[in-house]
Design brief:
Layout lengths: L19 H11 L6 H13 L6 E6 L1 H7 L13 E2 L2 E2 L4 H10 L7 E6 L11 E5 L9 E3 L17 H7 L1 E3 H13 L12 H8 L7 E4 L22 E6 L1 H15 L6 H19 L4 E7 L2 E4 L1
Parallel strand pairs: 9-10
Antiparallel strand pairs: 1-4, 1-5, 2-3, 4-8, 5-9, 6-7, 6-8, 10-11
Helix pairs in contact: 1-6, 2-6, 3-9
Protein backbone atom coordinates (compact mmCIF):
# COMPACT_ATOMS: atom_id res chain seq x y z
CA UNK A 1 0.00 0.00 0.00
CA UNK A 2 1.51 3.33 -1.07
CA UNK A 3 -0.89 5.83 0.49
CA UNK A 4 -2.79 6.25 -2.77
CA UNK A 5 -4.89 3.11 -2.35
CA UNK A 6 -6.78 1.54 0.52
CA UNK A 7 -5.84 -1.84 2.00
CA UNK A 8 -7.55 -4.85 0.34
CA UNK A 9 -9.40 -5.56 3.61
CA UNK A 10 -11.69 -2.58 2.94
CA UNK A 11 -14.96 -3.48 1.22
CA UNK A 12 -14.22 -2.81 -2.47
CA UNK A 13 -17.72 -1.52 -3.21
CA UNK A 14 -18.46 0.57 -0.14
CA UNK A 15 -15.04 2.24 -0.09
CA UNK A 16 -14.76 2.57 -3.85
CA UNK A 17 -13.60 5.78 -5.50
CA UNK A 18 -16.75 5.64 -7.66
CA UNK A 19 -19.74 7.89 -7.07
CA UNK A 20 -22.24 6.90 -4.40
CA UNK A 21 -24.83 6.14 -7.10
CA UNK A 22 -22.40 3.79 -8.84
CA UNK A 23 -21.63 2.07 -5.55
CA UNK A 24 -25.34 1.39 -5.03
CA UNK A 25 -25.62 -0.11 -8.53
CA UNK A 26 -22.59 -2.34 -7.89
CA UNK A 27 -23.90 -3.46 -4.51
CA UNK A 28 -27.37 -4.33 -5.88
CA UNK A 29 -25.73 -6.27 -8.72
CA UNK A 30 -23.66 -8.22 -6.17
CA UNK A 31 -26.87 -9.37 -4.39
CA UNK A 32 -28.96 -10.18 -7.47
CA UNK A 33 -29.11 -13.88 -6.55
CA UNK A 34 -30.58 -13.21 -3.09
CA UNK A 35 -34.33 -13.72 -3.08
CA UNK A 36 -35.51 -10.49 -1.41
CA UNK A 37 -32.72 -8.12 -2.50
CA UNK A 38 -34.67 -6.40 -5.30
CA UNK A 39 -37.77 -5.90 -3.17
CA UNK A 40 -35.71 -4.58 -0.29
CA UNK A 41 -33.96 -2.05 -2.52
CA UNK A 42 -37.34 -0.94 -3.88
CA UNK A 43 -38.89 -0.60 -0.41
CA UNK A 44 -35.94 1.33 0.99
CA UNK A 45 -35.94 3.75 -1.96
CA UNK A 46 -39.68 4.30 -1.54
CA UNK A 47 -39.39 4.93 2.19
CA UNK A 48 -36.49 7.36 1.84
CA UNK A 49 -38.24 9.48 -0.77
CA UNK A 50 -41.71 9.53 0.81
CA UNK A 51 -42.81 13.19 1.18
CA UNK A 52 -44.37 12.58 4.61
CA UNK A 53 -41.86 10.24 6.25
CA UNK A 54 -38.74 10.68 4.13
CA UNK A 55 -35.25 11.87 4.96
CA UNK A 56 -34.84 14.92 7.18
CA UNK A 57 -31.97 16.68 8.93
CA UNK A 58 -32.14 16.89 12.72
CA UNK A 59 -30.26 18.17 15.74
CA UNK A 60 -30.86 17.18 19.34
CA UNK A 61 -30.91 19.72 22.10
CA UNK A 62 -31.34 19.70 25.86
CA UNK A 63 -34.00 21.50 27.88
CA UNK A 64 -31.99 24.55 28.93
CA UNK A 65 -30.57 25.10 25.45
CA UNK A 66 -34.02 24.80 23.88
CA UNK A 67 -35.45 27.36 26.29
CA UNK A 68 -32.66 29.76 25.26
CA UNK A 69 -33.35 29.09 21.58
CA UNK A 70 -37.11 29.75 21.77
CA UNK A 71 -38.53 32.06 20.68
CA UNK A 72 -35.81 34.49 19.52
CA UNK A 73 -32.46 32.89 20.33
CA UNK A 74 -29.89 31.33 18.02
CA UNK A 75 -28.50 27.79 17.82
CA UNK A 76 -24.76 28.15 18.42
CA UNK A 77 -21.81 25.84 17.89
CA UNK A 78 -19.09 25.27 20.47
CA UNK A 79 -16.78 27.83 18.91
CA UNK A 80 -19.35 30.48 19.79
CA UNK A 81 -19.19 29.41 23.45
CA UNK A 82 -22.89 28.94 24.19
CA UNK A 83 -23.95 28.98 27.82
CA UNK A 84 -25.48 25.70 28.98
CA UNK A 85 -26.35 25.05 32.61
CA UNK A 86 -24.78 28.33 33.65
CA UNK A 87 -21.42 27.39 32.14
CA UNK A 88 -19.78 28.52 28.94
CA UNK A 89 -19.17 25.60 26.60
CA UNK A 90 -16.22 25.62 24.22
CA UNK A 91 -14.62 23.42 21.61
CA UNK A 92 -12.39 20.61 22.85
CA UNK A 93 -8.93 19.66 21.60
CA UNK A 94 -10.52 16.59 20.01
CA UNK A 95 -13.05 18.74 18.16
CA UNK A 96 -10.23 20.85 16.74
CA UNK A 97 -8.37 17.73 15.63
CA UNK A 98 -11.48 16.38 13.91
CA UNK A 99 -12.09 19.68 12.13
CA UNK A 100 -8.50 19.74 10.93
CA UNK A 101 -8.63 16.14 9.67
CA UNK A 102 -11.94 16.78 7.90
CA UNK A 103 -10.78 20.05 6.38
CA UNK A 104 -13.55 21.93 8.20
CA UNK A 105 -13.41 25.51 9.43
CA UNK A 106 -15.07 24.78 12.75
CA UNK A 107 -16.48 28.23 13.62
CA UNK A 108 -18.61 28.19 10.46
CA UNK A 109 -19.96 24.61 10.74
CA UNK A 110 -23.01 23.31 12.62
CA UNK A 111 -23.32 19.55 12.94
CA UNK A 112 -26.58 17.70 12.39
CA UNK A 113 -27.66 14.16 11.53
CA UNK A 114 -29.68 12.48 8.82
CA UNK A 115 -32.87 10.84 10.06
CA UNK A 116 -36.04 9.20 8.85
CA UNK A 117 -38.31 8.69 11.84
CA UNK A 118 -37.32 8.50 15.46
CA UNK A 119 -36.01 11.15 17.81
CA UNK A 120 -32.48 11.74 16.64
CA UNK A 121 -29.39 11.23 18.77
CA UNK A 122 -30.76 11.47 22.28
CA UNK A 123 -27.25 11.45 23.74
CA UNK A 124 -27.12 15.13 22.77
CA UNK A 125 -30.52 16.05 24.17
CA UNK A 126 -34.01 14.74 24.67
CA UNK A 127 -35.60 17.12 22.14
CA UNK A 128 -35.13 16.50 18.43
CA UNK A 129 -35.43 19.49 16.09
CA UNK A 130 -36.27 18.86 12.43
CA UNK A 131 -34.63 21.57 10.32
CA UNK A 132 -35.66 23.49 7.22
CA UNK A 133 -32.53 23.14 5.11
CA UNK A 134 -33.60 25.85 2.69
CA UNK A 135 -33.36 28.35 5.57
CA UNK A 136 -29.88 27.20 6.62
CA UNK A 137 -27.86 25.43 3.92
CA UNK A 138 -29.65 24.03 0.89
CA UNK A 139 -26.80 21.67 -0.07
CA UNK A 140 -24.75 20.69 2.99
CA UNK A 141 -21.83 18.30 2.99
CA UNK A 142 -22.49 14.81 4.33
CA UNK A 143 -20.11 12.38 6.03
CA UNK A 144 -21.20 8.78 6.25
CA UNK A 145 -20.44 8.45 9.99
CA UNK A 146 -19.68 10.40 13.16
CA UNK A 147 -16.65 12.53 12.27
CA UNK A 148 -15.05 11.71 15.61
CA UNK A 149 -14.32 8.31 14.08
CA UNK A 150 -11.41 9.91 12.22
CA UNK A 151 -9.54 9.99 15.55
CA UNK A 152 -9.68 6.18 15.73
CA UNK A 153 -8.35 3.22 13.75
CA UNK A 154 -8.39 2.48 10.88
CA UNK A 155 -8.17 6.19 10.02
CA UNK A 156 -5.20 6.78 12.32
CA UNK A 157 -3.35 3.74 10.97
CA UNK A 158 -3.47 4.72 7.31
CA UNK A 159 -0.54 6.51 5.67
CA UNK A 160 -3.07 8.78 3.94
CA UNK A 161 -6.30 8.99 5.99
CA UNK A 162 -7.55 11.78 3.73
CA UNK A 163 -8.06 9.20 0.99
CA UNK A 164 -10.54 7.31 3.16
CA UNK A 165 -12.21 10.48 4.44
CA UNK A 166 -12.82 11.81 0.93
CA UNK A 167 -14.46 8.56 -0.15
CA UNK A 168 -16.95 8.87 2.69
CA UNK A 169 -18.07 12.41 1.86
CA UNK A 170 -21.10 13.35 -0.22
CA UNK A 171 -23.57 16.20 -0.67
CA UNK A 172 -27.26 16.52 0.07
CA UNK A 173 -28.34 17.47 -3.45
CA UNK A 174 -26.65 14.55 -5.22
CA UNK A 175 -25.85 11.82 -2.71
CA UNK A 176 -28.34 11.65 0.15
CA UNK A 177 -30.36 8.73 -1.19
CA UNK A 178 -27.37 6.71 -2.42
CA UNK A 179 -25.41 7.23 0.80
CA UNK A 180 -28.40 6.13 2.84
CA UNK A 181 -28.99 3.09 0.63
CA UNK A 182 -25.36 2.07 1.13
CA UNK A 183 -25.83 2.42 4.88
CA UNK A 184 -29.07 0.46 5.06
CA UNK A 185 -29.01 -2.25 2.38
CA UNK A 186 -25.86 -4.13 3.52
CA UNK A 187 -27.40 -4.49 6.99
CA UNK A 188 -30.47 -6.39 5.75
CA UNK A 189 -31.01 -10.13 5.42
CA UNK A 190 -31.96 -10.41 1.76
CA UNK A 191 -32.55 -14.16 1.92
CA UNK A 192 -35.38 -14.14 4.46
CA UNK A 193 -37.84 -11.24 4.20
CA UNK A 194 -38.78 -7.81 2.90
CA UNK A 195 -37.74 -4.98 5.21
CA UNK A 196 -40.25 -2.83 7.13
CA UNK A 197 -40.30 0.94 7.41
CA UNK A 198 -39.47 0.78 11.11
CA UNK A 199 -36.31 -1.22 10.45
CA UNK A 200 -35.19 1.22 7.75
CA UNK A 201 -35.68 4.11 10.17
CA UNK A 202 -33.66 2.39 12.87
CA UNK A 203 -30.79 1.70 10.48
CA UNK A 204 -30.65 5.26 9.14
CA UNK A 205 -29.97 6.54 12.65
CA UNK A 206 -29.19 3.95 15.30
CA UNK A 207 -27.87 5.18 18.65
CA UNK A 208 -24.79 7.16 17.53
CA UNK A 209 -24.42 5.45 14.16
CA UNK A 210 -25.63 7.97 11.62
CA UNK A 211 -24.80 10.06 8.57
CA UNK A 212 -23.42 13.39 9.71
CA UNK A 213 -24.52 16.67 8.11
CA UNK A 214 -22.24 19.71 8.00
CA UNK A 215 -24.32 22.89 7.82
CA UNK A 216 -22.83 26.19 6.65
CA UNK A 217 -25.44 28.89 7.33
CA UNK A 218 -25.16 32.12 5.39
CA UNK A 219 -23.80 35.00 7.45
CA UNK A 220 -25.44 37.60 5.24
CA UNK A 221 -28.94 38.97 5.80
CA UNK A 222 -31.79 36.72 4.68
CA UNK A 223 -35.37 35.91 5.68
CA UNK A 224 -34.19 33.67 8.54
CA UNK A 225 -31.41 36.00 9.65
CA UNK A 226 -32.49 39.56 8.76
CA UNK A 227 -29.60 41.33 10.49
CA UNK A 228 -26.94 38.83 9.42
CA UNK A 229 -26.57 37.70 13.04
CA UNK A 230 -23.74 35.24 13.58
CA UNK A 231 -25.10 31.93 14.78
CA UNK A 232 -26.42 28.76 13.24
CA UNK A 233 -30.15 29.29 12.96
CA UNK A 234 -33.23 30.50 14.77
CA UNK A 235 -36.86 29.48 15.19
CA UNK A 236 -37.69 30.19 11.54
CA UNK A 237 -35.37 27.40 10.44
CA UNK A 238 -37.06 24.74 12.59
CA UNK A 239 -39.82 22.69 10.96
CA UNK A 240 -40.89 20.86 14.08
CA UNK A 241 -39.95 19.15 17.31
CA UNK A 242 -39.98 15.41 18.01
CA UNK A 243 -40.16 13.79 21.41
CA UNK A 244 -39.57 10.22 22.48
CA UNK A 245 -42.50 8.41 24.10
CA UNK A 246 -40.11 7.36 26.87
CA UNK A 247 -39.69 10.88 28.27
CA UNK A 248 -43.34 11.71 27.70
CA UNK A 249 -44.40 8.60 29.65
CA UNK A 250 -42.10 9.45 32.55
CA UNK A 251 -43.35 13.05 32.63
CA UNK A 252 -46.97 11.91 32.56
CA UNK A 253 -46.39 9.50 35.43
CA UNK A 254 -44.59 12.13 37.53
CA UNK A 255 -47.40 14.60 36.96
CA UNK A 256 -49.97 11.98 38.01
CA UNK A 257 -48.02 11.27 41.20
CA UNK A 258 -47.73 14.98 41.96
CA UNK A 259 -51.45 15.55 41.37
CA UNK A 260 -52.23 12.60 43.67
CA UNK A 261 -50.30 14.32 46.46
CA UNK A 262 -47.31 11.97 46.33
CA UNK A 263 -43.90 13.51 46.96
CA UNK A 264 -41.38 13.83 44.16
CA UNK A 265 -37.65 14.04 44.69
CA UNK A 266 -36.06 17.42 44.03
CA UNK A 267 -34.49 16.02 40.87
CA UNK A 268 -37.84 14.65 39.63
CA UNK A 269 -39.63 17.92 40.35
CA UNK A 270 -36.96 20.03 38.63
CA UNK A 271 -36.95 17.76 35.57
CA UNK A 272 -40.74 17.87 35.33
CA UNK A 273 -40.83 21.63 35.83
CA UNK A 274 -38.27 22.23 33.06
CA UNK A 275 -40.24 20.04 30.65
CA UNK A 276 -43.41 21.98 31.40
CA UNK A 277 -41.52 25.22 30.70
CA UNK A 278 -40.49 23.76 27.35
CA UNK A 279 -44.11 22.82 26.58
CA UNK A 280 -45.19 26.41 27.13
CA UNK A 281 -42.26 27.82 25.13
CA UNK A 282 -42.95 25.47 22.22
CA UNK A 283 -46.63 26.47 22.19
CA UNK A 284 -45.77 30.19 22.37
CA UNK A 285 -43.33 29.79 19.47
CA UNK A 286 -46.02 27.93 17.49
CA UNK A 287 -43.57 25.12 16.86
CA UNK A 288 -45.21 21.87 15.68
CA UNK A 289 -44.49 19.09 18.16
CA UNK A 290 -44.98 15.33 17.90
CA UNK A 291 -44.40 12.26 20.00
CA UNK A 292 -42.89 9.65 17.71
CA UNK A 293 -43.19 5.88 17.89
CA UNK A 294 -42.32 3.33 15.23
CA UNK A 295 -44.43 0.34 14.29
CA UNK A 296 -43.68 -2.22 11.61
CA UNK A 297 -44.38 -0.94 8.14
CA UNK A 298 -45.15 2.64 9.05
CA UNK A 299 -45.01 5.31 11.75
CA UNK A 300 -47.55 6.17 14.36
CA UNK A 301 -47.58 9.88 14.97
CA UNK A 302 -49.53 11.18 17.95
Amino acid sequence: MNGKTLPPSFDPIYFSADSWDDRVVQWIDSTKNEEFADDNARVVRQVLSDPDSGLVVVVNIGTEALLKLLPDGRYLNLYERPEVGGKRQEESAERKRVDSAMGIHGPDVYFAALALGGCGIRFYGEYCLVLKLERIDADPQMFDRDSYDVLLPPFTELPNPQLLIQRLIGHWSTDRYAMTLMKVLPELDHQRNVVTTGTVSELVLKDQEYIEIHLHPARDSNDSNPQGVKGGFGRDAIAGLRESPDEVAVATRLRERYDDGLLLTDLEYQWLHRRECVTRAVAAAKLPSRVVTQHGRGYQWK
